[in-house]
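Continuing from the previous page...

OK, I double-checked the sequence for Argininosuccinate lyase against my notes and this is the correct one:
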Amino acid sequence: MSNSDNNQILKNTNAQILDEFNASVMFDKELYSQDIKGSIAHSQMLFEQGILSKEDKDAIHNGLLQVKDEIESGKFEFKIEHEDIHMAVESRLTQIIGDAGKRLHTARSRNDQVATDFRLYVQEKSLSIKEQLKEVINTFISVSQNHTTTLIPGMTHLQHAQPINFAYHLLAYANMFKRDYERFESSYERNNYSPLGSAALAGTPHNINRESTSKQLGFTSPTINAMDSVSDRDFALEILFNISTTMMHVSRISEELVTWSSYEFQFVKMSDEYATTSSIMPQKKNPDVPELLRGKTGRTYGNLISLLTVMKGLPLAYNKDTQEDKEGVFDSVKTIEISLKILNEVIKTMHVNIDRMNEACKIGHLSATDLADYLVQKQNMPFRTAYYITKDVVAMANSLNKDISELSIDEIRNSNEQIKDINDEIVMYLDLKSSMNARNSFGGTSTKQTEKQIEILKDWLKNK
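Thanks. Re-ran it with the corrected sequence; updated structure tokens here:
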């Protein structure tokens, strides 16, 4: 083989590698629906402005709908040489309708086209994730309604602290997911502006109507600076941040589920659908699903950091670097969609071991703070004095191998000379359920306040 033949082979190989490196069609085909929707709106506007004839506009619309049908039916062949979804659709459209298809790109650039397609995708996913979050919040509320009197140890530093009810604990997560919902909602409103018509970076000399395309596509209005419009990816960063924050909350409840379902806790038992047995230990049930939910959070963090890194040094306006903006978003969206769906079912189907939770509340003297509060409020003692008396009562309980809530009035009185005549009503204050219900301040753990929180969340859901 001659040197010229070798050189040609090498040249062809290099060209193929470069085509593959440069192309995005194999992943940005995810945007086919948004691309076709944007093209229909663009061609309609061109017709309204007298730039496109009715015949060409109708041919373009019908051709685009055929392309969409071919993609959705699996008949469409995506090729590397098309480079991206925009050229793939336009090439096939031109094959179907001829020269009319070549008129579609008048008064736009792939820069504003991809910015529009991607923004439409992000906006649509923000809405659908919001709906999933509503379902999750509703499930947490539904489970909570059955456990407003179920005691569970409230913890700090993973140590028993004060008695709370299980509904109160679950509602903490409902509030986290409510904030997540509000973040997606806020991002949607802030980013609901159309880049279409910005062209390459400076607008177009054609007499276009950006208000028309904006309205057709469901945007609030057009963006106001073409250079910013084609280079902005804040909307993609926002959805990645919103997903990462939501997944962090998913991970936190998953960690609790892993802990609660352990032999040491046995607070909950997960449905067999969401736990698996060991491959060599048939007696063992592993919380694989919440572990996976916890693990998948890391990939969403990675996608956010990745795009932040891509964007950090880009000059205005468009740069090819932003081709790296989509795969991470697609991955994070798919991750959160399946994660929220599964979490919803895990919470809905888990069995709550009320007796085990109640027994756990008798470890760690959870109502000790109530004794100190009682001495301050009823005996007018300085808090620090009450604190040390409470330590003596706890020591008495430990010596008798009892929880402080199980002490008799005589045992309490005998623990410290300063309380030898204390009113026997203190026994009621140290009762675990009474201790829980004593925290009746707004936002507190009492059954009354927990029920109020449920109603607040229900009212909020009704308005969404």
